[in-house]
Amino acid sequence: MVRRLPLSDNGPLSSFARDLRGVKDGTQGTVEMAVLRGASRTAVYAALNGTRLPSVQTLGAMIDAWIDGGETGRQWWLERRRQTEESMAEAARLRGIATARRTPEEVDFTEQLRHLWRECGSPSTEQAALHCSLSARTLDSYLGGRTLPTAERLGELFDGLSVLCEADKASLVSSAHESPVGEALLRARAARKEERSRVRQLAKVLPGGQPVPADTRHSNGFGVVAGVLQGQKFDSRQALAQAGVHRQLMAGIAGRQSLGAESVIVSDTGNDDYGDVIVYTGEGGLNPETGRLARDQQLTRGNAALATSAATGAPVRVIRRISTAPHSRLYQYIGLFKVEDYWSEQGSHGYRIWRFRLVQLSTAEQSESGLSTPAPAVRQEAQHDVYRPRSASSVQRIVRSTATANLVKQMYDYTCQVCGIRIQGRTGAYAESAHILPLGSPHDGPDVIGNVLCLCPNHHVLFDQGMLIINDDLTVVARADSTVLGRLREIPDHRLDRQHLARHRILHGLPE
Description:
434 Repressor (Amino-terminal Domain), 17 helices, alpha+beta, PUA domain-like, disordered N terminus, three-stranded antiparallel beta sheet
């Protein structure tokens, strides 16, 4: 089933999307059929939902998958797309929004490139792609005039084309690189640069390009949103986006891997919601047709953003879907949470999923979390049941001290088991204890010496984030570049539990 968003009854894009859905439903086509023909699943959904005009290639894949109309049917839809694009540009112009236009120099370059392609026998882009480092999709984009190659890419294109040409045409391709086509590319790229500069200047003066007023309720950052109260309800995803509470219209996680997660939406499916503590299941791995898990989830995109939030300590806005009706979408903002821990585990369908433990901030902490940008990542600790007093800082850093942890540090004379460094501070030697299997729910690791490592702060951070892996033979591997750092030090009186090491690897996404 297609995940549809409410569409406006007006506008060329809405009409185009409505007709596309009619074609799909009328032929009983599926999104997967278009994906198998090379289309991006996200692009197909966006086209059907009316949130984005499909590219020529995406539209071609959709039409080929759902309509057996041959070249005539394809050309009709391409012309319909062109008219829709022009109508959207005209509507944007009337609203005072600066939009880029295709320059005559770009048109000239495309025509010269197509002419050369015809001179060489009009080979398929799939054939040409086999003889150069460019993909067929990229070559289609160049020939369709949708993008401009760099001079280096144009040379690669000619390298592939010259192989397919007859002997007497090879020299034509070689000379074209230096003269007509190459010169046309230089003019086209210069014109494109000027066009972009023109649009930037227009955006400053046209009404539709003015900055958003300061009192507009919208947030691009982290923490509380001005004007939005805890417990406030919203009747749609669009309302959440407009208020700046959750800016993604489809994804359940909003944010970026480099900065962290701004907000998440919690539903009653796949998540363990205990009120002020939520064990949240990550995104990805679903079959779009059945809605069931069909492959392992990866620590990328939204999942990676939540992992970054665990490292930075930046708060995450949490929105709970409170409607139980099948077609109802009622949401409630329930406040700011902190990502205390994350791990991977095997889901009920047999595929690996990522889980995130979210803990609600206190009232005082929520009132202090008016952040516009996240704090830089410093470290993440993955233990929960004992907390030491902390002073205010940009990152909430929890350093554990138990009798068992202190014993292990003394056994190694405060020397890191990975790098062998012993930090000497003003008040004595300093090291940190790292529990291999974290204490507390849901991991319930034991506070015994076989579950504790003596590490320097740097390697403690990497170990907690799963970027440092210890194998059963105690070889230490840095996951950033798969470098073997050496063998972990282990003294006779300190025998590490290999089962805990294996569990640590599994929690951080490595196969069993």
